[in-house]
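Sequence in, structure out. Go.
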Amino acid sequence: MPIGIRRNFLPISIICLVCSSTLGVKTNAAVTNGADIYCFMRNGGNTHEPSWQAAYQFIKSKKQGLFKTSPKQAASMIVEEVVQDPIKYEDCIAYLGDLYTGDSTSIEINDEDQLKDKAKSSNDGSEKSPKGISIDRYSY
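Output:
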């Protein structure tokens, strides 16, 4: 093989070797997402707010680029992750509504009378926002 061809062949072979070794590697490391954090904290006994803050901060820190993830997008991402794997997040499904209401639902509410009492207390009208004003719970 002439020397000129060997010089051209060497950089190409190095590039191919590097690309093949990095592109073919499959990582088996566990991937954590916002739903993992939110559900783990809620199942551990934390209320909605600290669980949401931890999951939202995690989601924001993982997002690369110029634009950050809004709280509404982060909540949707968590719901999407739970819906995509309902078996993994089976204990967390009851908490998904809290992402949009801001309330902390207790998983122990099983009695029909307790549910009726809770519904009556939430419909008493004492927590309404003033007319014409929309309160966005995600306005951090």
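Check: The longest helix spans residues 3-23. Residues 34-118 form one domain.
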